[in-house]
Specification:
Two copies of one chain form a homodimer. By secondary structure, chain A is mainly alpha-helical. Chain A has three domains: about 120 residues, MgtE N-terminal fold (Alpha Horseshoe), CATH 1.25.60.10; about 110 residues, CBS-domain; about 180 residues, SLC41 divalent cation transporters, integral membrane domain (Tetracycline Repressor, domain 2, Orthogonal Bundle), CATH 1.10.357. The first copy, chain A, is built from 22 helices and six strands. In chain A, strands 1-2-3 form a three-stranded mixed β-sheet. In chain A, strands 4-5-6 form a three-stranded mixed β-sheet.
C-alpha cells in the first residue's frame, strides 16, 4: 500500500521556492485522490501554484475530489481558458453536484465559463431532487442502436471510452431513444463480430425512474450486484445512469444519517466543519422538544411526590429504570431501522417481529427485574422496595422492546423516515411510561 | 422496474401439480436474485422441485444468494453429480464463505463433493480471518505476464471471462507471480494489438495485504472508486482480488454494527431470525454491566438523600438532566464514530475536534440551562431551584459533548472499536457525573 507517501511539508517548501521541476517529480504517478488530499493542507495561494503543476487528466480528477470552496477558488483563479477546458471535460453529474452547492451568484460565474451544450445538460440535471436517481445520475453513458453490429459497437466504444463514466454496460435503444436492452462489455467481446446488438442483448433490463429515492436505487444496485443502473423517464426514454461508486457514497451517507437521527438529530456529518455556533443552532430545536418531553417525566415524579417523601429510596432507582428502558428500546429501534434500510426486515411481517421482540423484552425484563429486586433488597433492606423495583423493571423492558420495534415500523408504514421517530421519541415515551409504572406500583403497594 | 413480478402463489401451485413447463415459462428471463427470493417462501420439498427447473447458470447464482441452511439442503438433496458441477463452478470466495458457516460435519459432506483442485483453493481461503482482505477475496482474478501482447491478452480474456469474477481489471505479474502492474479492460481495448502489457500497464498499483481489516479495504475501494483491489502476501505475490460488490456488503455491515454497538450491543442483525431466547441471552451481559453502572447513579442520589428530603422537587428534574446528557453525548459520539468510519474525521486532529464540540456543548448548555431554570422557577416557584437546575444542565451538556467526542476518539487511538465504547459507557458515565454535579450544586446552594 502506497498511502500517505506524499510529503506535504516538502510540497509546501517546493511551492514557496517555486521549484516546479521538483514538484513534478514528487507527484509523478501519484493517484489524483492522494493529490487532492494534499490540497486540504495548502493555502489558497499555494493551491493555485500546485494545481498548475498537475497535468490535465489528473487535474480533472483532483478537482472533482476537492471541496466546494476550494474548487470554486481554483476555477476562478486559473486562466479562464484552462477553467473552460476543465469544466467541459468534467462529468455532468459532478458538475451538477458542484453547481448545486454554490450560491446563485457563484453558480452564474461558473456557468458563464461553460460551453452551451454542457450547460443545458447540467441545467437538466440540476432540475432533479438531489436525493433521487435523477440527482445521482450522469449523462455520460453509452447507448447504441439495436441494429449496430458487435464489432462496429466495439470500435465506436474505443472512441467514446475516454468520455464515458462506465464502458462496462452498453445500453441498447430504439429510434425514439427508448431503453430496450443492455449488453455488458463482456458480452460484446464474446459475441461474433457481425451480430447485431438486438440479437444478443438482454431485454429484461432493470431500470429506475428519475424520481426514485436514492436509498432505493442503492438497495437495487446492491441487491443485484450491478456496476451501473439506467435511469428512464415515464416513456422509458433513457436519461442517464447511476454508477456503483456514487451509490457507495449513498450507502454510507444513509447509514450515517440513520445513526445521527437515532442519536436524536438530522444533523449531517459535513457540518463537522461548520462553526460551533451553526452546529449548536442545528441541534437546538430537537433538544428543546426533548426537554419538553422530559419535563413531563418530571411531572410524573412530581405527581408522586407524596410517595417519594414516604420512601426517599424510591428515587435511587430512577436512573437504572430510565437508562435501561432507553437503552433496550433504542437497541430494538436500531435493529428495525437498519433492518428496514438494508431490506433484511420486511414491513409485511410487522406483528410477527413485534411479538418476537416482545418475547426478548419479557425474558430480559424478568431476569433483570429479579436481579434489581435482589439488589434493592440487599442495599436498602426493604423487601417491598425490591418487589416494586423488580416489577417496574420487568414491565419497563418489555414495553421498551415493543415500543422500540413498533414505532419505527409504523413510521415506515406512514412513508416517513423510521430513524427520526426511533431515537428520542421512543426514549422519552419510555421515560414517562416507565416512571409512571414505577411510582404507581410503589403507591399501590405502599398503601396496601 | 420489474420488481416483485414473480407470483409465489402460482409457483407453489405449479410445483404441487409438477407443471414443469409452466414453471419454466414463469421464470424465463427472471433475474437469479429474484428467483432466490422465492425460495424463502418455499418448503424444503418445494425448493428441490423448483431448483431443478432453473437452468445451470441461473441455478449457480440462485444458490449463492440462498441462506446457509437452504443451500446445504439443496446441495445434499439433488444428484451428487449436479451438486459436484455447481460446487466446482461456484466462485472460491462464495464457497469459502458457505463452508465457513457450516458445522465441521456438514463441511466435510460438502468438501467430499468438490474436486481436489477447488478444495485446496477453498481450504486456503478458509485459513484467513473472515473480516480481513484475505477472507473477503476471491481467487477468480485474471493475471497475465508482462510480456503478453495486447491482442493476445484480449483473446485469452474472452476464454477466461466466463469463470472470472471481474474482467475489468487485468493484473500483470512477473515470473514469480509477483504483482507488478495493472491494466483496465478499457486500456486493453485502446492499446495497439502488438504492444506488450508491460509497456502500457500502470505500475503504481494500489494493493492490500491479506491481513488488512475489511473495513480498511472498503475505505480504500471507496476512496479511489475502484471496481476491484488486488490482495498480495508479504512478497507481493498476487493471492486474489476483492471486488466492489463484496465491499458494498461490508460498508452496510459495518454501519449496522456501529449503530447497534452505539445502541449498546454487539448483536449482529442476522440474529433477527434467531430465537427470542438466544437474542435475550446475547443482550443480557451488556445489560448487566449497564445495571451496575446505573446502580452507582442511584448511589449518588442515595448519598444526597438528606438534600432530597429537604427539597423533593429536586428529584423532578432528574429525568431531564439524565436524558439530555445521554442524548447530546450519544450524538457527539455518533458523529465521531461515523466520521472515523468514513474517514471524514481525522484522528490526528483529536484536540481540535474536542474543543470545537465542547464549544457546541457550552452554547447548548447555556441556552438550555437558562430555559430549564426558567421552567423550574415558574413550575415550582423556587428561584434557588431554577438556579441549581440551570447550572447543572449547562455543566452537564458541556461535559456530554466533551466525553462523547473524547471517549470514542481515545478508544480508536488504542486500536479498539470506537462504537463499542461510545454508547452505554458515555451515557452511564454522564448519568453518574451529571447527577453528582446536580446534587452537589443543590447541597452547596441550599446550605448557603
Amino acid at each position: 500500500m502506497r498511502q500517505g507517501t506524499l510529503d506535504v511539508k516538502k510540497i509546501k517548501e517546493f511551492i514557496s521556492k517555486k521549484a516546479i521541476k521538483s514538484l513534478r517529480t514528487i507527484i509523478q504517478e501519484q493517484h489524483p485522490v492522494d493529490l487532492a488530499e494534499v490540497f486540504e493542507e495548502l493555502t489558497d495561494r499555494e493551491s493555485i501554484i500546485f494545481f498548475k503543476v498537475i497535468d490535465f487528466d489528473a487535474a480533472l480528477e483532483v478537482l472533482t475530489e476537492l471541496d466546494v470552496e476550494k474548487k470554486f477558488f481554483i476555477l476562478t483563479n486559473i486562466s479562464p481558458r484552462y477553467a473552460f477546458q476543465l469544466l467541459n471535460e468534467m462529468s455532468s453529474d459532478d458538475l451538477a453536484d458542484f453547481l448545486g452547492e454554490l450560491s446563485e451568484e457563484k453558480k452564474n460565474i461558473i456557468l458563464s465559463l461553460i460551453e452551451t451544450r454542457q450547460q443545458s445538460d447540467v441545467k437538466g440535471l440540476l432540475s432533479y431532487d438531489k436525493n433521487t436517481a435523477g440527482g445521482l445520475m450522469t449523462t455520460e453513458y453509452i447507448a447504441f442502436s439495436v441494429d449496430m453490429q458487435s464489432q462496429q459497437a466495439l470500435n465506436r466504444l474505443s472512441e467514446l471510452a475516454p468520455d464515458a463514466e462506465t464502458i462496462y454496460y452498453v445500453y441498447a435503444v430504439d429510434s425514439m431513444n427508448r431503453l430496450v436492452g443492455v449488453v455488458s462489455l463482456r458480452d460484446l467481446i464474446l459475441a461474433p463480430a457481425q451480430k447485431p446488438i438486438g440479437e444478443f442483448m438482454s431485454t429484461e433490463v432493470k431500470k429506475v425512474q428519475a424520481s426514485m429515492d436514492q436509498e432505493d436505487v442503492a438497495k437495487l444496485i446492491k441487491k443485484y450486484g450491478f456496476l451501473a443502473l439506467p435511469v428512464v423517464d415515464d416513456n422509458d426514454v433513457l436519461l442517464g445512469i447511476v454508477t456503483v461508486d456514487d451509490v457507495m457514497d449513498v450507502v454510507e451517507e444513509e447509514a450515517t444519517e440513520d445513526m445521527l437521527k437515532l442519536a436524536g438529530s438530522d444533523e449531517k456529518l459535513d457540518t463537522w466543519k461548520s462553526s460551533p455556533w451553526m452546529r449548536a443552532k442545528r441541534r437546538l430545536p430537537w433538544i428543546l422538544v426533548a426537554v419538553a418531553g422530559e419535563i413531563i417525566s418530571g411531572g410524573v415524579i412530581n405527581s408522586f411526590s407524596y410517595t417519594i417523601k414516604a420512601l426517599v429510596a424510591l428515587s435511587f432507582f430512577i436512573p437504572v429504570l430510565m437508562d435501561m428502558g432507553g437503552n433496550v428500546g433504542t437497541q430494538s429501534a436500531a435493529i428495525v431501522v437498519r433492518g428496514l434500510a438494508t431490506g433484511e426486515i420486511n414491513p409485511a411481517s410487522l406483528w410477527k417481529n413485534v411479538l418476537r421482540e416482545a418475547m426478548v423484552g419479557i425474558i430480559l425484563g424478568a431476569i433483570n427485574g429479579a436481579i434489581i429486586a435482589l439488589i434493592a433488597y440487599i442495599w436498602q433492606g426493604e423487601v417491598v422496595l425490591g418487589f416494586v423495583v423488580g416489577i417496574a423493571m420487568a414491565f419497563n423492558l418489555t414495553l421498551a422492546t415493543i415500543l422500540g420495534t413498533l414505532v419505527p415500523f409504523l413510521w415506515h408504514r406512514l412513508g416517513r423516515d423510521p430513524a427520526v421517530a426511533a431515537g428520542p421519541f421512543v426514549t422519552t415515551a419510555l421515560d414517562i411510561m416507565g416512571l409512571f409504572i414505577y411510582f404507581s406500583t410503589a403507591t399501590w403497594i405502599l398503601k396496601a
